[in-house]
Amino acid sequence: MNRLHPRVRLLWVARAVLTAAVLGGVAGGVQFAVAPPWLPGWTPAAVFAFLAVVGVVTSLLRYRVWRYEVREDSLYLERGVFTRVRTVVPFVRVQHVDTSRSPTERLVGLASTVVYTAGSRGADVSVPGLALEDADGLRERLKGLAIRSEGEDAV
Amino acid sequence: MVRSLSPLSVPYRVFQRGSGIAIALLFALGGGFDLPVVGAAGPFVVVGLGVVAATALVGYEVAYVSRFSYELTADTLDIDSGVLSRRSREIPLRRIQNVDISRNVIQRVLGIAVASFETAGGGETEAELRFVSFEEAKRLQRELGRLKRDEDATAEPDAAGAPAGPETTELFALDRGELALLGAFSIDLRVPGLLFVAVSTLGSTVVPQYLTGAGGVAVVGLGVAGVILLALASWVVGAAASIVEYYDFRLVRSGEELQYERGLLQRYDGSIPFDKIQTLTIRDNPLKRRFGYATLYIETAGYGGGDGRSRGSEAAIPLAERDRILDLVEELEPVGDVDFERPPKRARRRYLVRYLFVVGALAAGLYAAQALVSPSIPWWPPLVLAPLAVWYAHATWRHRGHWLGDQHVVTRNGVLRRETKIVPYYRIQTVIDSRNVFQRRLDLATVTVDTAGSLSLGGQDAAAVDITGERADELRTALDARLDQAVDAYRAGRAGIGLEADGTHAETSGPEEVDAGAVTEHVGAGSTERGGPTSPDSEPVADPEGADETDETESSGGNRSGTDETESPGDGQSGIEENG
User: Fold this and answer.
1) Which of B26, B362, B460, B473 has a CA that sits 20 to 30 A from residue A119's CA?
2) Where are its TM segments located (chain A) (predicted)?
3) Given this model, what pLDDT does residue B33 score?
4) How many angstroms away from the CA of A16 is the closest CA of chain B?
5) Cβ contact (<8 Å) for B483 and A90?
6) For A81-132, what is each residue's pLDDT tens digit?
7) B319-333: pLDDT as tens digits
């Protein structure tokens, strides 16, 4: 079982803090504009702190849970903090494989590998937080395996 | 041979596009308004403009029809179209999911039809021929089926040019009684919405005048009458709509295709190749279960035929007796006897807690209302629902189940809208095992089987809900392994999906070995017609666990007995048809 690149924690924590900051800002804006008398002045800070702590803890837990494995004939993923999801993607069903890098991912030098199937939840299967060369490697490996196990497609 | 559209499509297209313009013109003329620049000559200018527009329209449509050509070659459908910007398309025949023909009343009078070709990609119809003669559309549908078969079987094409067409057997026809029953049970829920919009726009000016003059009792009476009228209207509209839609519904098996026809005013006529069927869904509700009826949806990966409503489920059998549905299922997908495995008992406790929680929440809500709004509001009425919650929890548990067959995984969920999904192993795309916090506490899991069927876009995939964690682990590996075997078997010359060979349609009894496990050799009755590499057969794929090496269950109704609705809880025996 492979784990994600440890640096992905940085990415996820940063995202969580950013989200918390935005929502805290919204709370601050509401506080400033409406100023309901029953709302204590420290609410925005509390909102920010609460969301940030929750977000950071979930991010760290998420990293601890995330696993993936390239098996003999399928890709296996395990993830999810609250809902634990295990996905099996048989290589025969792989339509194509992408490597995608969002701006934030590029900033920390990571990439995601996205696996598409013809299923109705096709784009659900993506492996985030891989070092670029790992992502490309995974992509190539999946591609090779998918080609090798090519069959009549199911649709 | 390159063909073009029917010449009759010019007048129809002109009529279709021009009617709007004509109405606008009529309004302009009838209103007799003065154009500021031309003054009294206004009507003439309008008529002149109309003539110009009509000429342009006719010219465009003539050009469109004459510049539109299509050709059915041995392995592609080529379409060249466009007046100003040209577009050439080649659609590989084996990518075409189904061919639909639709024609409304006017088109039927003119003898023309719309032929649409669906592929799996994208959200819309791949190609449409507007319009060809009905005979031509039927010919295309037939030829396409034939060419695909030839391509698959690599047989030499028929020497005789005139396709005799494969023999057809009627699988299902909706009789009058069922149609009437379907109408009786159809309530169009859009009617209240539409009426509400109409009333809220018109009514706001009209109603208050009447209301001020009327007393309180009259208002209440009026309201009750309105609600009754509304219900009646929804019912009438719903009944009319479903009768119009499903009038004279027939499902015919023609070679390796399923063909359906339906409709009173607008007639639909489609074909679905067997090897494109993704899943079968049997849906029912307590009422239908009580009287032994059910609905069947046949899913392909293509976009739905006809209109957006029947998306991805071209051949839905709207209502039929359960036995007939099950016979048909057996014909399409020989599932055999289904013995559902229920979730463990602790799952039922979970449902009980869940529904009691809802009851509690309702009571708490009312209690809050009592405290905050008015002390006259009683908080206890939701508690009356508690026994109902107990019953519902039990029913939820009882109706839930999954089963692994030789070739299919079958799941069943839901009480008020119970769905039994039949997924051939060969159609599995991904297997997803998810466990949320509450499920983990009880060591339960939900295993979802994702397919390419387009009905599952609504998140209603086949799923074995609340099974034990251990079983979920087993299921995950088993499904993966069985998919592999199904793919191997498919490559070795048989599809994991398709028709049971019978006397008239013996397909193949190829001796290919499937790895591992015992394969019950299928004995095809009669001679083998085609030994083609992909002719559908239904030989059971070897069971990885070697669990049941039963003889192949044929589609005869012999082993199906308990179709009656028994509400006795906890009876162990179950088939698809089981309801207990």
Assistant:
1) B473
2) 12-35, 41-61
3) 54
4) 21
5) yes
6) 999 999 998 888 888 888 888 888 888 889 998 888 877 665 568 898 888 8
7) 888 998 898 888 888
Sorted by sequence, the CB contacts under 8 Å of residue B180 that are 6+ apart come out as: B243
**Residue-level length of chain A:** 155
- ipTM of this predicted structure: 0.87
Whether A50 is covered by a domain: the verdict is yes
Same domain, A126 and A59: no
> Tell me: the pLDDT tens digits for B183-208?
887 777 777 777 777 766 665 555 55
- Taking CB atoms and an 8 Å cutoff, what residues of chain B touch A82? 436-437
The residue among B576, B533, B572 whose CA lies nearest residue B405 is: B576
Whole-number pLDDT of residue B378: 81
In angstroms, the CA B328 to CA B340 distance is 20
Whole-number mean pLDDT of chain B?
A: 74
Of B133-147, B174-188, B307-321, B499-513, the poorest mean pLDDT is in B499-513
Of residues B522, B521, B523, B519, the one with CA closest to residue B542: B519
Q: How far apart are CA A104 and CA A14, in angstroms?
A: 10
Together in a domain, A97 and A32: no
**B51-82 tens-digit pLDDT:** 888 888 899 999 999 889 999 888 888 999 88
Whether residue A97 sits in one domain with residue A51: no
Domain ranges, ordered by start, for chain B: 182-246, 279-343+400-559, 345-394
A64, A79, A105 - which closes a domain? A64
Indicate the residue of B301, B430, B436 with minimum beta-carbon distance to A83.
B436
Rg (CA), chain B: 29
Are A75 and A140 contained in the same domain? yes
* pLDDT classification of B541: cutoffs 50, 70, 90: very low
Q: Is residue A1 part of a domain?
A: no
- Best B300, B430, B437, B491 residue to mutate vs chain A (most A CBs within 10 Å): B430
Of A80, A86, A154, the CB nearest to B427: A154
* Domain with A84 in it: 67-148
Tell whether A79 and A138 lie within a shared domain. Answer: yes
Could A155 and B278 be called an inter-chain contact, meaning their C-beta atoms sit closer than 8 Å? yes
Which tokens sit at B358? 């809802």
Same domain for A72 and A57, yes or no, is no
Beta partners for residue B127, in sequence order: B117
For residues A49 and A113, membership in a common domain is answered with no
| Residue that is last in its domain, among A25, A43, A64 | A64
Q: Considering chain A, what is the average pLDDT of its residues?
A: 86
- Given B301, B429, B476, which is nearest A93 (Cβ)? B429
> Into how many domains does chain A fold?
2
Question: Could you tell me if residue A2 is inside a domain?
Answer: no
- Give chain A's contact residues with B (Cβ, < 8 Å): 73-74, 80, 82-90, 92-93, 117-122, 124-125, 149, 151-152, 154-155
Within a domain: residue A141? yes
Chain A residues with CB inside 8 Å of B436's CB? 82-84
**pLDDT of res. B555:** 36
Does residue B458 surpass a pLDDT of 70?
no
Asked if the Cβ–Cβ distance from A155 to B440 is below 8 Å, we say no
Q: How many Å apart are CA B289 and CA B292, to the nearest integer?
A: 5
Which pLDDT score, from 0 to 100, does residue B351 have? 93
Q: What is the pLDDT of residue A54?
A: 95
Q: What is the CATH number of the domain that holds A106?
A: 2.30.29
Q: Which two tokens stand for residue B488?
A: 């191997």
- Long-range pairs for A60-67 at CB < 8 Å and ≥24 separation? A60/A9, A60/A13, A62/A12, A63/A3, A63/A4, A63/A6, A63/A8, A63/A9, A63/A12, A63/A129, A66/A3, A66/A4, A66/A129, A67/A1, A67/A2, A67/A3
Identify whether residues A88 and A126 lie together within a single domain. Answer: yes
Query: Which chain A residues touch B432 with a CB distance below 8 Å?
Result: 85-88, 121, 124
